[in-house]
Each structure stands twice: as C-alpha cells, then as structure tokens.
Amino acid sequence: MNDAPHRIDAARVGHFRFYDLVMAAFVMIVLLSNVIGASKLSYIPPPGGTQWVFGAGVLFFPVSYIIGDVLTEVYGYARARRVIWTGFAALLFMAFMAWAVVSLPPADGWEGQDAYEFVFGNTWRIVAASIAAFWVGEFANSYVLAKMKSRMEGRHLWMRIIGSTIVGQGLDSLIFYPVAFLGVPGFPPELVAQAVVSQWAIKTGWEAALTPVTYRVIGALKHAEAIDVYDETTNFSPFAKGG
After folding, report:
1. Fewest CB atoms less than 10 Å from the CB: which of 152, 178, 196, 221?
2. Full 3-state SS string of the chain
3. Burial class of 5 by CB neighbour count within 10 A (0 to 12, 13 to 18, 19+)
4. Distance, CA of 36 to chain centre
5. Digit-coded pLDDT (tens) for 56-109
6. Is the pLDDT of residue 124 over 80?
7. Between β-strands 52-55 and 41-44, what pairing exists: parallel, antiparallel or unpaired?
8. If we measure between CA atoms, which residue out of 94, 180, 90, 166 comes closest to residue 135?
9. Which CATH fold would you assign to the domain 7-230?
10. Residue ranges per domain, the chain?
C-alpha cells in the first residue's frame, strides 16, 4: 500500500492519527511558557560588563509558533484555527484560575501568598496583552503560511516558515508590549519600542534557527498521515465554523 503524502484540498480532509497529539503539544507550550517563563527575567552578559535582560519565556514561547507552522502545513488552516481557539480558551481559563487562586485568603501559618502573588498575580493589562497578542499573532502566522503554500504550489517550505514567523511574531510583539506597558511608570515609549523590536528579532531568529527541525517534523507527519493539505477553498475567517 502506498502511504506517501499526496496533495489534498483541506475541505476533503478526514481523520488524522496524530492531530490530537499536536494540539495537546501546542496548548501545553502556550500555557507553560506563560506560567513558567513569563515572570522570570534573565540576562546575557555582552562585552563591557553590562547585562542584556530578556524574559525567560522568549526561549520557549516561539515553539508554539513552530507547532502552528506544523499544524497549518500538515493539517491545513481550518484545523490550525481549531487549535488556536483551543489555546485561546485555555489561556482565558488559566487567567481566571490564577486570579481566583491568588484572591483566596491564605490560611493562617501558610507563608506562600507573596510568592503566589508575584508569580501568578499579573495585572489585567499583562493578561489582556498576552491573550490579544497570542490570538492575532497565531492567526496571522497560520494565514500567511497557508496562503504562501497555495501560491507557491508547495515549494520553498523554508520561505513560508520564516515569512509567516516574521509576520506573526511581529504582530505579537507589536500588540503585547504597548498594551502591557505603554504609559506605565518606568516604561518610557522608547523602551517599549526597543522591547518590541528586540523581542521580535529574538523570537524570529530562534524560530529560523530551528527551521531544520521544523522540516523534519513536517516531513515525518506528512508521511505518517499520507497527506499534503492545501487550503484552496478554505474560509480563512478566524470565526468560520469547521475544522
């Protein structure tokens, strides 16, 4: 039996063997990068004895965009859209749960309240910025990749991986930092602008460096699923039903 990948329109896609596992990986990365990575600042020591500070989450959050590329390339935009909405709902619940747990009065003798508030008590602005940036950035990333794949007839995978990342991560950074920090004392506009550019460059560079890994994962999944999905008749509205 020939199980080599064959071109198929997204509207004709049926059951997948590994789609649910890729969805679980996507949601896991989105949640953990926001919970574990968002609250810690680290640094790189450039020459001169100074410190170049960055948020630790930048090391892992771009993996969600890589998985988004894999989803769109292998399973099509409609299926990726479903996963993005799942991640969005998970982020909303995580924000609600963090607020509820932090707000509960601590029992007498329990000394972890300050630590909980520091790690999980993000302001409404940061939560709103994170959720909005995720939603816009992920949908833009998926849309650009799907459109480029159709117009390039499936050629130049590296170009659409990097091109969609440039757009998606650019919008993500452009939304998150101004919404979260513009007007906050200690964050002048020039510092916010610097954060937008630097974080966009880091995330894009990190994903570009992992392009060979993305290639291998996409190739393995296409072979395992025996498909190559093209979004030729897909409704690209984020709110469309299906997938």
Report:
1. 152
2. CCCCCCEEEHHHCCCCCCHHHHHHHHHHHHHHHHHCCCCCEEEECCCCCCCEEEEHHHHCCHHHHHHHHHHHHHHCHHHHHHHHHHHHHHHHHHHHHHHHHHHCCCCCCCCCHHHHHHHHCCCHHHHHHHHHHHHHHHHHHHHHHHHHHHHCCCCCHHHHHHHHHHHHHHHHHHHHHHHHHCCCCCCCHHHHHHHHHHHHHHHHHHHHHCHHHHHHHHHHHHHHHCCEEECCCCCCCCCCCCC
3. middle
4. 15
5. 778 888 899 999 999 999 999 999 999 999 999 999 999 899 899 999 999 999
6. yes
7. antiparallel
8. 90
9. Arp2/3 complex 21 kDa subunit ARPC3 (1.10.1760)
10. 7-230
User: What mean pLDDT value characterizes the chain?
Assistant: 87
Q: Look at 62-66, 147-151, 195-199, 231-235 and tell me which has the smallest mean pLDDT.
A: 195-199
pLDDT tens digit sequence for 34-64 = 778 766 767 778 777 777 767 777 888 889 9
Give the rounded percent of residues in the chain with a pLDDT score beyond 70.
91
This prediction's pTM: 0.87
For residues 57 and 37, the answer to whether their CB atoms sit within 8 Å is yes
* pLDDT of residue 243 exceeding 80: no
- The amino acid present at 40, given as its one-letter code, is K
- As a whole number of angstroms, the distance between CA 65 and CA 29 comes to 10
Q: How far lies 237's CA from each of 95, 139, 150, 223, in Å? A: 26, 9, 17, 29
